Amino acid sequence: MSSVRVVDHNVKRGVQVDMGEGDEWPQLRERILASDIILLATPIWMGHPASVAQQVLERLDADLSEMDDQGRPVMYGKVATVAVVGNEDGAHKSVADMMQGLNDVGFSIPAQGGTYWVGEAMQTVDFKDLDEVPDAVATANAALARNAAHLAWLLRRQEYPAK
């Protein structure tokens, strides 16, 4: 298991697999292609996913036309989950927007594949500042992990049909 903060990389704007010199997306994309499960995590800003999360979806858009050797989208057989944090409304909509984009590209979404924590609106308490994870969030996170692992296991054993 590994994590990447996309914001720490030079990921150019655009909807191509490689946007040219200095673009670090191709290396990040290779990590995605090597993964069975991804978690796209984003804070909420003004009721919407952060622009970096949107940028990830935009870069994944290039994979709509990328096929594997059996004619399927290259992200078929991969599981995607979503996590949202923030101190304002918009968690459900943000999860839905991210999941739809990931599914459009070919990722499979497990049951209860989204999780979130939002503090009191317009306050300064962030998830990272909590002394412990609230029980409801821990339960949702455990279900997400369990269901994502199960779906990935199933997809490894029984791939989607070829064209």
UniProtKB/TrEMBL annotation:
It holds the Pfam family FMN_red. GO terms for molecular function: oxidoreductase activity. Residues 19-121 form the NADPH-dependent FMN reductase-like domain. InterPro entries: Flavoprotein-like_sf (IPR029039), FMN_Rdtase-like_dom (IPR005025). It comes from the Bacteria. This is NADPH-dependent FMN reductase-like domain-containing protein. It comes from Arthrobacter nitrophenolicus.
